[in-house]
Sequence to fold (116 residues):
Amino acid sequence: MGFAVAPHLLLYATGGLAFSELKFSSAYSDNAVDVTFPGGTGYGRSSQIKIGWTAGGGLEWLLDKTWSVRAEYLYVDLGSTHVLVATSNTAAFTQTMRVDADLIAHIGRLGINYRF
Fold:
């Protein structure tokens, strides 16, 4: 959706559905405290398709009848996700850490268009 603010300048807003394949991994390791309590390690990963939304805006400048340039900003929100990371220092001491991530992107684009 947009409107011409000058004969050669268009301002517009855009929005809609966004999706992406997310591959997320987390690794954990720490140093040994002493011989009776050695350092621990752990690893977890996740792969999934995330669906969310996007909104933004931009402007397009008409250079002549066939060429234009544009600049655009998009905000993308794909929600959040988490990965469980099993960690172990000894056989008697194991636990699971939860690693959370918000899936947000700020995208700036520049473009040049040619009209046939």
In short: The mean pLDDT is 89. Residues 2-114 form one domain. The beta strands are 2-6, 9-29, 41-62, 67-90, 93-114.
